Amino acid sequence: MIARIEAHRRERPQHWRLREEPRRLSAAVRDESRAGGLLLIDCLTLWTANCLWPPASAAGVASGASGEFQADLPGWHAERDAFLTSVLTTSSEIIIVSNEVGTGLVPENAAARLFRDEQGRLNQLVAAACDAVFLVTAGLPLRLK
Predict the structure, then answer these.
(1) What is the C-alpha separation between 110 and 21, in angstroms, rounded?
(2) Active site (annotated) includes residue 8
(3) 52 and 72 in contact (C-beta within 8 Å)?
(4) What gap in Å lies between CA 28 and CA 109, rounded to an integer?
(5) What's the whole-number average pLDDT of the chain?
(6) What confidence tens digit (pLDDT) does each residue in 117-131 have?
(7) Catalytic-role residue among 1, 4, 5, 8
(8) Main-chain dihedrals φ then ψ at residue 110, nearest 5 degrees
């Protein structure tokens, strides 16, 4: 994964500004919108996971009886709703990248099903808030909205 991230960094145009924001995306949209210009958010899928299962120290989320961390649904919903508000109220143009997670098999475990459901709902809410929506498969864009 580290090599993949480094490859993405090398491939970016030199004039791009970069801000990595693992959880507080709404604040990043508000801050970066002040400079004007186009914002590229890549990607909502990783952000969803970061918010659903933050480091235990960041959200005070306890682990369950199985030792697995419990999802922080209230924190996630607050972050999600704040992000949607920032998208709707910014004057900047935004390109948002996300993964389609609902076209495969139903995941076997509860955490994967929760992630799929929450990511799918986020994708629906973002699509409703956007002027244009594209599904890109094999490098081919299909306009959905």
Answers:
(1) 27
(2) yes
(3) yes
(4) 32
(5) 90
(6) 999 999 999 999 999
(7) 8
(8) -65, -40
Q: What is the pLDDT of residues 52-110, one digit of tens each?
A: 998 864 554 555 555 566 899 999 999 999 999 999 999 999 999 999 998 989 999 99
Nearest 5 degrees, angle CA 8-CA 13-CA 16? 100
Q: How far apart are CA 35 and CA 44, in angstroms?
A: 22
Please classify residue 114 by burial: count the beta carbons closer than 10 Å to its beta carbon, then call 0-12 exposed, 13-18 middle and 19+ buried: middle
Q: How far apart are CA 59 and CA 145, in angstroms?
A: 36
Q: What mean pLDDT comes out for the span 37-49? A: 95
In sequence order, which ranges of the chain are alpha helices (DSSP H)?
2-11, 25-33, 44-52, 56-59, 73-89, 110-129
Retrieve residue 67's tokens: 């030792």
The answer to pTM > 0.70 is yes
From the number of C-beta atoms within 10 Å of its C-beta (0-12, 13-18, 19+), residue 89 rates as exposed
CB neighbours of residue 87 within 10 Å? 21
Is pLDDT at 137 greater than 70 in this prediction?
yes
Q: Return d(Cα 70, Cα 112) in angstroms, integer.
A: 12
